[in-house]
Design brief:
heterodimer; A: mainly alpha; 6 helices; B: alpha+beta; Glutaredoxin; five-stranded mixed sheet; 4 helices; 5 strands; 47% helix; 20% strand
Chain lengths: 150, 144
């Protein structure tokens, strides 16, 4: 599958929705964080995790937030200053998937505060992307001492 | 309730400070007294803009466009792009930890400036002009 370049504001728009969803998770999870249960907080993080997986597998252009951006937001914006390859935001989705999945699984294993910590870590990455256009996972990749060809 | 607000407010503050710090460091110009092998440069140009990119890089494409446009405005300036995995010697020597990183390199391999992260066309123009003045002054010294 060939991925075409995208408007970089698309992933940032998606990151905004993800940031808010993760804040909802934290809000819901905190009161009962010491005694994990299958509650609304967990289900919300499961939904966020599934959306991360979607983005990691199909790329940001074939993601629900991508479609929403394309049809509901993009028509009201001017032309983008530059285009972005899909690989960086896709990788970011994979990092988000990894972090939130750890939270989902550890919560199932009744680890206290795992849900809140995972949601907080994912929130920081999503917020940095939405507010500053910073792809945290990509920065980490460049800073790795030993890199492999992607 | 207050616990939830406190946690969310702290997260917002930490993330915002982190983002502002990152933004401040974007386009930061530094200098290291070291050379880049002339074999990595574009021959026949007095200055080569050596861009270090990676496959996972949000602004490498934007920086490529900015640098290529600069080569059309400045005579004798060329642009070349390397993957961060392909030039480990340069990466180690100059402690490249972010992409894009751009070096303004004179024909003999002398690195005039190093730019961490993306920057704007005007900053590139200014650095090229600065380097040109510097090179010309050095040439004057040798003439006598």
């Amino acid at each position: 599958m060939k991925y075409k370049p995208i408007d970089p504001r698309g992933p940032r728009f998606g990151g905004t929705i993800t940031s808010v969803a993760l804040l909802v998770v934290i809000w819901l999870a905190l009161p009962g964080a010491a005694s994990p249960a299958i509650d609304a907080a967990w289900w919300t993080l499961v939904a966020v995790t599934a959306l991360f997986a979607w983005g990691a597998i199909f790329g940001p252009a074939r993601h629900p937030y991508g479609w929403l951006f394309r049809f509901a937001v993009r028509p009201f914006l001017g032309a983008p200053e530059f285009l972005e390859e899909q690989a960086p935001p896709r990788f970011a989705q994979a990092v988000g998937l990894f972090v939130s999945l750890i939270g989902v699984v550890l919560h199932l294993l009744a680890v206290p505060y795992a849900l809140v910590v995972a949601a907080a870590a994912a929130f920081i990455a999503a917020f940095l992307n939405a507010a500053f256009g910073l792809c945290l996972g990509c920065e980490i990749y460049a800073a790795l001492p030993k890199r492999r060809r992607a | 309730m207050s616990e939830q607000l406190l946690v969310i407010a702290s997260l917002l503050v930490v993330a915002t400070l982190g983002g502002l710090w990152w933004k401040r460091n974007q386009g930061r110009v530094s200098h290291t007294e070291a050379d880049i092998s002339p074999s990595l440069l574009v021959a026949g140009h007095w200055l080569t803009l050596v861009q270090v990119s990676s496959p996972l890089c949000s602004y490498c494409g934007a920086m490529r466009g900015i640098l290529q446009a600069a080569t059309t405005r400045h005579e004798g300036v060329a642009h070349i792009e390397y993957d961060i995995s392909d030039i480990p010697d340069v990466v180690d020597k100059f402690h490249v930890r972010q992409t894009p990183t751009t070096f303004l390199v004179e024909a003999d391999g002398r690195v005039a400036h190093q730019i961490g992260g993306a920057t704007n066309p005007r900053a590139i123009d200014e650095l090229i002009d600065l380097t040109r003045v510097d090179v010309e002054q050095r040439a004057d010294e040798y003439e006598i």
